[in-house]
Every structure is written in C-alpha cells, then in structure tokens.
Specification:
Structural class: alpha+beta
Number of helices: 5
Strand content: 25-35%
Number of domains: 2
CATH architecture of the largest domain: Roll
Helix content: 10-25%
CATH class of the largest domain: Alpha Beta
Low-confidence stretches: 1-66
Order of helices and strands: EHHEEEEEEEHHEH
Shape: globular
C-alpha cells in the first residue's frame, strides 16, 4: 500500500522549505497535499491519518511513529553530567521534546562554542507558557539533559556551511538549514537519517 497519493491535513500551511522534511518524516516519495506544520510537529506523539487512493476511494490508515530525536544549539559553558537549558526557542518540531528523548548538543558558536560536543537524554522537559499580550511567539521549552558521552569529531558551522542545496536530502544540509541558516539558538527535531549521521561522531 503506497502512502503517496493523498494526505489528510487540517490545512495546507506548510512552507515550501519544510515540504522535503514533511515527506521525509512520513516516508513518502511525493504527496499531492502537504500536512500542516502542526501535524509535522506532533508526529512523534500522535496518530496521523493518511489515505491511499484506490480508484475514487481513499481508505483511511493510522500509524504511530517512534519518538523523534532532537538537537539543541545553545550556550554551553560547563559540560557536566547534567545540563540545564532554560526557556529555549524551538523550531522544526522542537517544541515536542520530552523526557526520555535523545538530544544531540551543539555548543553555539555565537557564544564561543565549537558545535557538536555531546549526546544526552532528556530527563525533564517543561513548556513555557506564552505571554497573553503577544500575538506571534516562538514556542519555548526548558529541558534538563543527562550527559551521556562526548563527541569524538568536530561538526559545526564551519563544517556545515557549504551544504546549501536545501533539496538534496543530505543530513549535513538538514543541520545547516535548521541551525545555521538562521543563527539563533534553538531546539529542533532531526530526521532518522540525520540522527544516524550524528551517531557516527561518537
């Protein structure tokens, strides 16, 4: 059964730049209707409904996905067994990070860091309440991360800056797009193949 002909979505608001990520997360070669941004952001913890077209009929199918892997780029002054990151901005599904999730830690070059430094596991996560008087706000999350191991090889802005073909599907490109196209520190989700790529640095 090929899940590529049509997808149910509450809206079609997904940006063009995010469409390759959507297809990648859903394991689709192509889709005729993109899922919404909110659908992408909750793939790791909710059911999504897809339709497979057979003639004029679309038959419903539900699937639940494994927990996603995340990465954070932030100021890291003192890598220790437990790391605290308070009120961090989130993008690309990062707001769904939760206890038990794997997280790759990048020490932000904006604050003198050198990129990928460690891998850890989230031991606590708390969403920050939005301000009532602000219309548009980036979701923020505070997390506590149990340090697991240090990276053995370098990976940061200098190694990733040349990967700018946003449609090539490479893990280096995904990381450059999510972390360095906009230089702000943030928590993001990463695809399975990018998580496997990052595992090679440990």
């Amino acid at each position: 059964m090929l899940l590529k002909n049509c997808l149910h979505a509450a809206d079609d608001s997904l940006t063009t730049s995010a469409q390759p990520f959507a297809r990648q997360q859903l394991g689709l070669a192509q889709v005729t209707r993109q899922p919404s941004t909110s659908t992408i952001q909750t793939l790791s913890r909710m059911y999504f409904i897809a339709w497979t077209r057979s003639g004029e009929t679309c038959r419903s199918r539900t699937a639940i996905l494994d927990a996603m892997v995340f990465a954070i780029k932030a100021e890291v002054r003192d890598p220790r067994k437990t790391l605290e990151f308070t009120a961090q901005k989130t993008m690309y599904g990062g707001k769904n990070i939760a206890e038990g999730d794997t997280v790759f830690i990048f020490a932000s070059e904006n604050e003198g860091g050198r990129g990928l430094i460690a891998r850890g596991v989230v031991s606590a996560a708390e969403s920050i309440a939005k301000k009532a008087d602000v219309v548009r706000q980036t979701p923020r999350v505070s997390i506590t991360v149990k340090y697991i191991e240090a990276a053995k090889r370098s990976l940061g802005r200098s190694e990733l800056k040349r990967f700018t073909d946003w449609k090539d599907g490479r893990p280096e490109t995904e990381l450059n797009f999510k972390f360095y196209r906009q230089a702000t520190n943030k928590i993001v989700s990463v695809s399975d193949h990018t998580a496997a790529f990052l595992d090679q640095f440990f």
